[in-house]
Amino acid sequence: MPVQDFLVISQVCKSYSGHPAVQEVSLNVARGEVFSLLGPSGCGKTTLLRMVAGFERPDQGRILLGGQDITELPPEQRPVNTVFQNYALFPHLSVWENIAFGLRMARRGRAEIRAAVEKMLVLARLEDHARKRPGQLSGGQRQRVAIARALVNEPQVLLLDEPLAALDLKLRQHMLEELRGLHRQVGSTFIYVTHDQEEALSLSDRLAVMNAGRVEQVAVPEELYQAPANGFVAGFIGDANFLNAEVQEMLPGGFVRVQIEGMGRPAVQAAADWRTGAAVRVMVRPESLHLGLERPAASDRSNCFQAVVEEVSFLGGHERLRLRAGSLSLVVKRSRGAEGRQPGLSEPCWVRFAPEAGRVIEAVQPTCGAK
Fold it and tell me: Is the peptide bond before 79 cis (omega within 30 degrees of 0)?
């Protein structure tokens, strides 16, 4: 079996009381990859994870791991371990004993258990807490214990079900660094479930964005952000301005000229050919819009139009601005400390963005635009 097909989920479906939770999902995960299932609550990502773990059986479809069909195997016979959101630690056992628990259940020898636990304590930076009980630890420390306990059995796949959801922002950021470091050292395949896009983008080699039980797109983080497959993915991954437009003409190099009220006739990217007059939706990320007091030079190939700053919000290292261009409302993200004087509240300005920064993402129904 090719390396890229280490974990294969093929046409898997799952319903509860006639209501579909997962609908014909197929995914391939590479050995040693950090692969995230990302989506809103109720999209089916945890159900899919539980089927990989063996806690749920699919109504149809197959799950293969390393070439072996594990669809019908019980959880204890799968080379898979799970880290849950609530940690699920044994409160009466010490950190050392919690980590050792799985090895003891597997009837490993004392020397082997001791060596494996000591190794995991070092990897998880828990050496000074080995004799403490979970109630004596911080949230981040308890999460590290849960991860160490799951990894000590050397599973081929580690499943992480929203493991950082209960932690505050600073601790989540710290634990993401810890997870990246652990993954580099142990090399297991990680399947990470989250609704937090920043977690998924920063941790993952690839992601699957799910919605209503289906996979909308599978891609590397940069591609998901820069080239979303549709409006749902574009709106779920990061902030975006969505602009209704009419196709004017196809341009060389994968670009199209569109008419947008308040913006004129900008050139933007298009992944497909569109007929003239088609109603489409264009995406432009807020950080791709640049403001100036002067009209850009004629030699600048950027799209440009005039607007007025209606609102400015301070957000630490950057500002969030709302602009008005005719009837068009736009959000701009601007770094603080930008060179030169920047347009302020109620000031008119020029807005520019590169053709590569705009993208046609879908037809506006009921108009049928794509050929």
Answer: no
pLDDT digits (tens, 9 = 90+) for 227-259: 999 999 999 998 999 999 999 999 999 999 999
Interatomic CA distance for residues 334 and 317, integer angstroms? 9
Report residue 65 as tokens: 């791991």
| Helices of type H across 55-168 | 95-105, 110-123, 139-151
Main-chain dihedrals φ then ψ at residue 9, nearest 5 degrees: -110, 115
Q: Which residue, 282, 289, 281, is CA-closest to 330?
A: 289
- Residue 41, helix vs strand vs coil: coil
pTM for this entry: 0.85
Paired tokens of 43: 């999209």
User: CA 352, CA 354: separation in Å to the nearest integer?
Assistant: 7
In this predicted model, what pLDDT tens digit does every residue of 153-185 receive, in sequence order? 888 999 999 888 777 777 778 888 888 888 888
Alpha-carbon distance values, 15 to 59, 212, 350 (Å): 7, 12, 52
Q: C-alpha 75: how far from its chain's center?
A: 27
Q: Which amino acid does the sequence have at 254?
A: G
Six-digit token string for 367: 């108009």
| Cα–Cα distance for residue pair 106/153, rounded to 1 Å | 9
Can you tell me the mean pLDDT for 130-157? 88
Residue type (1 letter), 350? W
Mean pLDDT of 88-99: 91
3-state class of 327 per DSSP?
coil
- Rounded to the nearest integer, the mean pLDDT of the chain is 89
Give the domains, in start order, of the chain with CATH numbers: 3-235 (3.40.50.300), 239-363 (2.40.50.100)
User: Pairing state of beta strands 267-270 and 303-315?
Assistant: unpaired
CB contact set of 119 (below 8 Å; sequence gap of 6+): none
| 150 pLDDT more than 70 | yes
Q: Two tokens at 104? A: 């003891």
Query: Distance from CA of residue 99 to its chain's centroid?
Result: 29
- Two structure tokens written together for 331: 């959000």
223 Cβ contact list (under 8 Å, min separation 6):
none
